Amino acid sequence: MNSTPAHADNIWTYWSVNSSTAGNPGTAVGDLSGVTVTYSGQFQSVDIGYPSWDPTTTFTTSPPPPAGGIIHMQGGSDLAESITFSAPVVNPLIAIWSLGQSTDPASFNFNSSEPFTIIAGGPGAEYGGSSITQSGNNVLGAEGNGVVQFIGTYSEIDFTTPGFEDWYGFTVGEAEAPPVPEPETFMLFGLGMAALPLLRCK
User: Fold this and answer.
1) Cβ pair 114, 150 in contact under 8 A
2) Are the beta carbons of 55 and 78 closer than 8 angstroms?
3) Which residues does residue 180 pair with via DSSP β-bridges, in sequence order?
């Protein structure tokens, strides 16, 4: 497991209770810094203010805010589930909370065309547990917590959650893009490039 966050800061989805309809399947809608995120699949509710997403070492140094909410799931079916973005997202994140129990393990089963890595994991503040783990295209948990980062640019992520467990959930994020260089940085870079021919002449 790579425990180094992709960037110093991440941005996370703020889910809308009013724009979401729970069911099997249901639809949840949220905002990821101007990108509309839509989840279609089995879920019980959109919960706001819980969990704490603590400790930060489990959910990266910039974890999801409790005010952003969580998709509260139970799984237990082979229903096709998806997360879609209104604009492509580079290397999206999924933070997973309380996946499975010691007696009821659960999983997110992703497609082989959706490569990912676990970038953080560990116990959660509410129920303890340990890190989520990876087996092939699947994320497994027996009271597992952590953050998965997908590799590439995505308009949609597809998966199933076939293992039933009473209460687990997820939210979606994106690693914050590196800052755009200041104009002075571009000027210094240009001066450096202009000096290269002079060095060759010597």
Assistant:
1) yes
2) no
3) none
Give the DSSP H/E element, type plus range, for residue 190.
helix 183-201
The token duo for 67 is 């005010």
Q: What is the DSSP letter of 124?
A: B
Question: pTM for this one?
Answer: 0.85
In 33-178, DSSP assigns E strands to: 35-43, 45-47, 70-73, 77-90, 92-99, 106-110, 116-121, 130-131, 133-135, 138-141, 144-150, 153-161, 168-175
Instruction: Give the span between the Cα atoms of 139 and 9, in whole angstroms.
Output: 23
By the 8 A CB rule, do 75 and 139 touch?
no
User: Is the CB of residue 124 less than 8 Å from the CB of residue 54?
Assistant: yes
For the stretch 54-91, pLDDT in tens is 999 999 999 999 999 999 999 998 899 999 999 999 99
Q: 96, 141 in Cβ contact below 8 A?
A: yes
